[in-house]
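FYI - complex with zinc ion, inputs then prediction.
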Amino acid sequence: MKKLLLLLLFIPLVSFGQTKTGLELCIQYQKSFSAFSTEKEANESLDKILNVIGASKNFTLVPCDDISNALAVTFKGERFILFDEAFMRKLTQLTNNWSSLFILAHEVGHHINGHTRDFLLATVLDDQSLEDRRKEELEADEFASFIVSKLGASYSQIEETIDLIASNESDLYSTHPNYDKRIAAVKKGFDRGYSDSDTSSSNTYNSNENSTEYINKGEIKPNYENPRGRINASYGNWYSSKVYPLEKMLHNQTDPFKKKEIKDSEPIKELVARTQGKSLSHYGSKNVEIGIKIQNYTNNYVDWNDGNGKEEYLYIPNKSFHIELIGWADYPKEIEYSQTNRTYATFEYVIDGKFSGQFVTYIGWTDMFYDFENDKELEEPIKVPIELQFNGWLYKSQQKENYEFVERLKAGKKLYLRFGKLFNWNGYKNENTGEYDTSKTSNKYQIPKYTYEFDLTGSSKALNH
Ligand SMILES: [Zn+2]
């Protein structure tokens, strides 16, 4: 990865001769202490990486202190990956458990793509331009992203690593490309890894392994003394808004029973990110928006208050994902919404022509008896469309679908969405998967199938809670 960087680091300090000796020492050192626990872990990670592509292990991993880096190098005809354990640990602490695997996979990528030349010869024959080196870095990033995506990392977990190690300054005089280029390479690799995965098994989130991701962030620790206000921002075509309901509600709350209730039900942080869509037919609704709500809780479950006291554990610990369609006015006004007899609809989506799926939601109109804007009772109720919330969040499978959809939005360019079909739900859901029985299709109402396009420029930043 950072062969030149390593050399540059050493140039001001020591001569090249000493650098080589240092490397040799490092390799000798490694050979005499092979039962290193973290090195064992590193080797296991290397095996995981190589398993993804079915390559044989023809590298040696060498822990090498104080280089604050990792690098792929060939030395006297042998292939090595040097890594600084303290550096990798630090990186993991600052980001998540996938970062060291990403870095390792990046170095493997250099070897696999034939970027590494012999360390001894490289300094003599180094005629490679910075431009070529940057190209190699992008190839290694794409490879690494592909690998960790296959192994189950989410896009945001990879993004977090790049956030930390790359900057967006001009890369003209650097061996490493700038942030935007690296993130584009990462997207490419992630998409490739994701698209040829069996998504039901490969993108399984391992809560034990990755829960640290959410622990180190000050933002999701409630600040009861000094509640934070709303934070609004816009990125590209996206608008995002963050609030901290828990700290606001617990500030000055003295009743311990109420405190507990609030703590169990209110999110610490709530992010809502929205973007306006456009209909590809001029007959479609003009003000369609898609909204994503991400909430962080102190709990790892949702207390589903439906009388049976059933708790559903969240797919991603302490976190829920809602997807809403706002302003979709294409459905017939006569569909009544009631708790007992709901009409359901499916919605189909495609992202970048690669990823597709469907959501289920209930639709209809409901009577409103109160005018909230003017704060008064209404003499005649008005009909208002009910908010479309895709995929109830009670089932882990649906939470997983929503989560993966959000990850796809962050990595994608365009989202297309359209109404699928109406069905009368018979009340049955698959207990394990949470899937609705959609077999009883309803022809009672005709709903036009206008396709809506959503530009995903800025989505990654807007959804970066
Ligand atoms: Zn590299």
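Residues 217-462 form one domain. The CA atoms of residues 423 and 442 lie 5 Å apart.
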